[in-house]
Amino acid sequence: MLAELPDMLAGFPLFAAVPRAQLVWFVAASSLRELAAGQRLLAPGDAIEHTYVLLRGTVHLFEPLRPAVDILLLQPGDATGYLPFSRIKTAGGVMQASESSTVLAFPKIRTQELAAQHFELTQALVSVMTSRVRETTAQQQQNEKMMALGKLSAGLAHELNNPIAALASTTEALRRQAAGLPAVLGQLLVLAATPAHAEAAAGLFAGATAAVLARLVRAELEDELADWLAEHRVPEAGPLSELLAERGVALAALDALAARVPAAALGPLLQWAGAHEHTRRLLDEAREATGRMTQLIRSVKVYTHMDQAPDKVPVDLHEGIRNTLALLAHKFRQLGVRLEEAYEPALPPVPLLVGEMNQVWTNLLDNALDAVEGVAGATVRVHTRRDREFAHIIVSDNGGGIPPAVQARIFDPFFTTKAPGRGTGLGLDLVQRIVRQHGGAIKVRSQPGHTAFEIHLPIAAAP
């Protein structure tokens, strides 16, 4: 089979431009490995001592804790392992055959000879490395974005749940309210209640304003109103007395109404007026719930920068921060973290790629929340100020701090201090690249009890 391998390699796009003599040398310096389905070619921590070219079958690379998610899928003609000028020393994931496969293994110790004598072959293998780095980085960045989206989606679902539940409760209360109205209206018609009588009853609520009463005082007023209603044989005295007490209606107002309307019509009139007031209050609650949902949806739209051109536009920097905080509000509440905000009111619009910059706010705020989890008096602070022609944004927390050795590597690609599954190691690398894309800079200052990430962004767009 070895004699046929140079021609087989020449048939793969990767080696199509490599002279046959170089492919013959490559095959002669290599060895064949047969892998059964499920057999590992490399495991995490294994020294990488060969360049591998897959000749037959399928091999996939995955993280040990996430075997269902491929980092890399190798098909016949693909190369992996040690590549010329690569600094990789050990495997970071599992490389495993998914079916019976054949691999050509070229020893790393002959790479210097390869680079010195076989230019086209070296060039082909180097192109694999550069393409692989680009593809892997893009995939990891997408994973980071998806993780952020997952966190925000969970937060959005949590935030929407409360107004949706309130709206459902309100509509059910309105349904019950509407079901009882025909009977009350029928009684009023039978009793020949006039529009003036109805106006007088409704005036109990229209003429009053919601009273801010001490709990004990309000409870006493509610009891007095309930007694008055029971004495005058008004049905459903309990709920009606609660409504009247909320509006601060005095007993004297009820006495005045009783003097103006027929005694038989007093009960139905008060029921009708109470139902009218209760309906108004329920509609206010529904409007508040829908308003909250509208605001959350608007926050998502602004956060993702929908319907906008992918160019830098001058925007209110604070709006993006507030929208991100709105989507993370559930996590602040869940962890019992206090939020402190101090914004520079005179900060002018800053030219931003809004969608990308919102990823920065998400990463920094989410990291700060993780840092203060379980800390007594946990606090996250967002502070902005202007320094000449730069906007400064500081996100700080009172967590345990970042050790100096970690601070030196914290912006390195794929470096993470989070538990497996909680971070890809590209969060702060992505933050730094987005900030630099805006002509800005980011730095970290940390000690036990205080960590601050400070971003500097130019207020004027770069020429």
Task: List strands and helices in order, with pairings.
Elements: H1 5-10, H2 20-29, E1 31-35, E2 40-42, E3 50-56, E4 59-63, E5 66-74, E6 79-81, E7 94-97, E8 101-107, H3 111-117, H4 119-190, H5 195-206, H6 215-231, H7 237-246, H8 251-260, H9 263-304, E9 313-315, H10 317-327, H11 329-335, E10 338-342, E11 350-352, H12 354-371, E12 379-387, E13 390-397, H13 404-407, H14 427-437, E14 441-447, E15 450-458
Helix pairs in contact: 4-9, 5-8, 5-9, 6-7, 9-10, 10-12, 12-14
The total count of strands amounts to: 15
* Strand neighbour order, sheet with most strands: 10-12-13-15-14
Give the % helix: 40-55%
Mean pLDDT score? 81
Helix and strand composition category: alpha+beta
Number of domains: 3
Low-confidence regions: 420-426
Summarize the main sheet: 5 strands, mixed
CATH overall fold name of the largest domain? Heat Shock Protein 90
Q: What is the H-and-E element order?
A: HHEEEEEEEEHHHHHHHEHHEEHEEHHEE
Task: Give me the Rg, rounded.
Answer: 35 Å
Q: How many alpha or pi helices?
A: 14
> What does the overall shape look like?
elongated
Distance between the termini: 61 Å
CATH architecture of the largest domain: 2-Layer Sandwich
Strand percentage: 15-25%
- At the first level of CATH, the class of the largest domain is Alpha Beta
Oligomeric form: single chain
**Can you identify the CATH superfamily of the largest domain?**
Histidine kinase-like ATPase, C-terminal domain
